[in-house]
Specification:
This protein has 125 residues and is mainly alpha-helical. It contains five helices and no strands. Helix 1 runs antiparallel to helix 2, helix 1 packs parallel to helix 3 and helix 2 runs parallel beside helix 5. The longest helix has 29 residues.
Length: 125
């Protein structure tokens, strides 16, 4: 039961942070492109790389901390289900160029961000 509560607590905070980033992106850049989703997926991928290296590989963190931060918080923060819906929406609008940019940014940049997070932690530790 403790594990479920840790994931739930982390997920709740991560979801609120995702919402706030989405609101910020909408206000700053407008509704023409899903910048909020791209942003949380890139930042979340960078953070998961950093956390995986920092708390798991370097410090042998407890299963509870991994559940709270990686499964819970980052699971609530990143939005790959929203990514899928945004891609379908752009497709249905006929926004082919925006769709391709969104797919490339979301996939390539998030993978690059995860590598960057791992690399940063390895260089600092």
């Amino acid at each position: 039961m403790t594990q479920i509560l840790l994931v739930a607590a982390g997920g709740a905070v991560g979801s609120v942070c995702r919402y706030l980033v989405g609101v910020w992106a909408l206000r700053l850049m407008g509704p023409s492109f899903p910048w909020g989703t791209v942003t949380v997926n890139i930042v979340g991928s960078f953070a998961i790389g950093m956390l995986a290296e920092l708390i798991v590989a370097r410090f042998g963190a407890s299963a509870e901390l991994r559940l709270l931060l990686i499964t819970g918080f980052l699971g609530g923060f990143t939005t790959f289900s929203a990514f899928a819906l945004d891609a379908v929406t752009l497709f249905e609008r006929g926004a082919s160029l925006a769709l391709m940019a969104y797919l490339i940014l979301s996939i390539a940049a998030t993978i690059a961000a995860a590598f960057a997070g791992i690399g940063l932690m390895r260089s600092l530790l």
